Amino acid sequence: MNKCRRYKKSKIINIILKNHFEKFKEDKLSRIKSKEMRQHIINVIEKALNCGNIEHGYIKHKCLNCYEEYIHGFSCKSKFCTKCGRMYSIKWSEKQAENMLNVKHRHAVFTIPEELRNYFYKKRELLKELQDAAYGVVSHYYKKKVKGNHEVGLIAVVHTFGSDLKWNPHIHALFTEGGIDKNNKWFKKLSHIPYQYLRKSWQKLVLDIIKTNFKDRETQKIINRLYKKYNNGFYVNAQRDLTKIKEAAKYIGRYLSRPAIAEYRISEYDGKCVTFWYENKNPREKITVRMDALDFIGKLVNHIHPKGFRVVRRYGLYSRRKNKLSIEIVKLYNFMKQRNIFELIQKQKNKKRSFKERLIETFGVNPFICTSCGNEMMLWEIWYRKYGLIYNVLNKSNYKNIINEICFLFCKYSSIKFPTITCSFFDILL
């Protein structure tokens, strides 16, 4: 009898959603006024819940030696899904590393006070203006404060939650320490931007966004009060510098599709309530929170962005219009500095890895190696609910591909050299 391994692992968040999401739709989801947003949330949750579900589609591999089978369901590719979100972040980081400048970068976190957070919840489209403001702060310093009108490259990522799952919008920015002047020359002198400038400039731009979009008297009072309360500006942390391209891309990438809460922080679920913990920074202590499962789901749902919202935006030298030119300029700069020809002619490009290679890297094992005999499995069948059977090894139209794959596996695991198969041979089979 054939053995069959299935990729199946129930995670605690999925269990909570499966048990309570229908109730959440009835009791809580109706509070969201936008019908489009409500439907978008339902689609995102249902997509994540069906991630890896073989009833929606699967890929089957089979061992030709002992007939063991391995079935893997299709991934949902949703950023809300903890598994797919992590994979998306890895792929994004690898892709960005190809187009980033081979220079030193700095990571900065731009935050807003609690009094203003709800404004960006009411109008989520204003999160885009927060990204623009982060670039505005850094760009203005390079263009006005440093002689030469230099342009910097910056990548801004929107992050909406804190460790306590509350709505806490802030911007993670990665920018070059240096820029290109009007003569297309690389300028690398600046390694530090005064914190006072960062905080005060950020404060003004954020409050200007609020002032422009909310013109009621109460908002104006809040703005005046915040200028007095935060006389040193809003908090900005720009302490971490990153020297390697891959390191910089990976560091900012982890904020791109990070789930609102990691599985390991959920300490208990009794079917009705969820208990989780987080670390408070000031004072530094571990805090445990227990809440109703519906409220917990509400916390997660709050951080689902509207359909089509761009979490990542690129500015300056990293914009599509200027990125290619800036890469060539920096290559030339590095060549003149280091006299290294490889900096000039070699393109920093990562090889795209296959699904199998990613699995091996992540889990340390090849799932397509038969656990019984150790031989490599063969692609046997692909099925998708929407389109039906896409591929089957027994389909005569696939014979050419089948025989090629059999020949490859045969030659791989034996010392016999398999002869070249001619078209006439295929014609006989067909």
Structural features, described:
The chain is an alpha+beta fold. The protein folds into two domains: 4-80 and 355-429, no CATH class; 82-260 and 303-345, no CATH class. The chain contains 14 helices and 15 strands. It has helices spanning 12-27, 35-49, 82-99, 114-122, 127-145, 195-213, 217-229, 245-253, 293-301, 320-338, 341-345, 355-363, 399-412, 423-429; strands spanning 4-6, 57-62, 69-73, 105-110, 153-161, 167-176, 179-180, 186-187, 236-242, 266-269, 273-280, 285-292, 312-316, 378-384, 388-392. Strands 1-3-2-14-15 form a five-stranded mixed β-sheet. The chain has a five-stranded antiparallel β-sheet with strand order 9-4-6-5-13. Helix 5 crosses helix 6. The longest helix has 19 residues, at 127-145.
